[in-house]
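User: Quick sanity check before I run a bigger batch. Here is a single chain. Can you write out its predicted 3D structure?
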Amino acid sequence: MAEDSRGLDRRSFLVTTGLTAAVTLPVAGTAQAATSRRGPGTLPSDPFTLGVASGDPDHDGFVLWTRLAPRPLAEDGLGGMPASTFPVRWELASDARFRRIVRRGTVTARPESAHSVHVELNGLGDGREFWYRFRVGDHVSPVGRTRTTPRPDSFGPALVMGFASCSQFEHGYFTAYRRLAEEHPDLILHLGDYQYEYKKGVYNSPGGNVRDHEGPETVSLATYRQRHAQYKSDTDLQAAHQAAPWLVVFDDHEVENNWADEVPENNSDTPEHAAFMKRRAAAFKAYYENMPLRRSSVPSGPDIQIYRRIRWGRLANFHMLDTRQFRSDQACGDGTKECAAASDPARSITGAAQEKWLLDGFRRSAARWDVLGQQVFFAQRDVDAGPIKRTSMDSWDGYVASRDRITKGWVDAKLRNAVVLTGDVHAHWASDLKLNYDDPSSRTVGSELVCSSITSGGDGADSNPADHPYLKINRHLRFYNNQRGYVLTRIGKDEMKVDFKTLASVRTRGAAVSTKASFVIQDRVPGLKQTYLRPVNSTLGTRSRRDVIQDTIDAETRRP
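Assistant: Done. Predicted structure follows.
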């Protein structure tokens, strides 16, 4: 706790405002900023319908973000704003009531950036909490909480970090985001599929969609801006952004399903190269406009710099990866199959430059924990119990040599603790990582934690992890659960504690959250030790192995 915030600490700030819907946690289903004061001004209605956010912290600063949008679903993607610039005042305080202002200033919101603003601050001091807000005329934004990282040569206190992915707006309510905010995290990672590209009713959850996308499939800048605004107007998502700084990376749906470098998906709405690259440029521009990213990530046409490294003192390095923009096309036409080309050493999921950057980072690391924040399943997952190996071509299994080089890279660099964080597959998984997955005696060299989706796939169902055939075929896999939720970690010098959080339903608002399983990764002891498993009455054992395997593949890959 920063010394200057003792008047209202982090917990009381979040709990109090959550109960009163006044500052940090607005009432679910509304987009009202309760601190906004109506009165004469340049905008007749609240422009802060998309909330506020912060991100990419370091030891002396971070990025503050907001976007002005009095009518967030406007078809032109400009949120109902006039085609003119607006001054946006911002304030940073060391207490939640803004009695001690640390910094203030004014930034210009411009129509060519969809009236988004990014305030990049430094010189603030290490390991401190701050609160921030914005003003336009008489309108005042919600208040967000953020922080700087520990001093580079210190560990600081244990880090509470949550991570999430895959929030299809139509498939459910974003209750999991609100529950994550209520965990009082210091840092949140989002590992991709923050928004989905489909038009209304095209991508349906098994139980039917509970709400609809606005507008057509996202192809143009206007439609990507509108879709981001629709997602950002959800106050459960706003609550998570207001609770802590975020580190974000995209996966495929921020552009379109399963794209690879300059290759669109099969049956794309933009199959021609020029059309797809124009679409990619529109998607990246809208992504930057709607995320708390530093100016180093301002896109240049169809290119964006999203892989980067964030240091949390000596405690952790977060290597945030891009596994879409530089990858080789999926082998053997994509899908889950036997494919000799998946092992071709010329194939890469990161591209040569990013791979070199990552391996150099391993060699220079002095962190207690090296954490890879990335998108798709890292460990091998063979779906066939026989001699044939069938794996997903969209995951690292489709880029075997690339995975081997990176795994060997951290082993050769003698990283103290390597942990891979993953999203994408709409289910919780945990795995020990191996140098050779085909050799049962191969030593464990790291751990993988995979978060389920926030909503994608609908409610799912609870089960006994041991009943899933993948855990029998792939002995390094340690856990599975098909409910929606997120992963919460507590990272200390001696261990990383991991809780897999689940919600019983996302089809109705306000579901409670509970812990399905807990694991510990001990310092210098690669691999996972399970410490808790919530019992369940139903099992997967009453269904055939083939059916369970096919259902798992479908849940991860079935699209329109």
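Confidence is low (pLDDT under 50) at residues 1-41.

User: Great, the batch can go ahead then.
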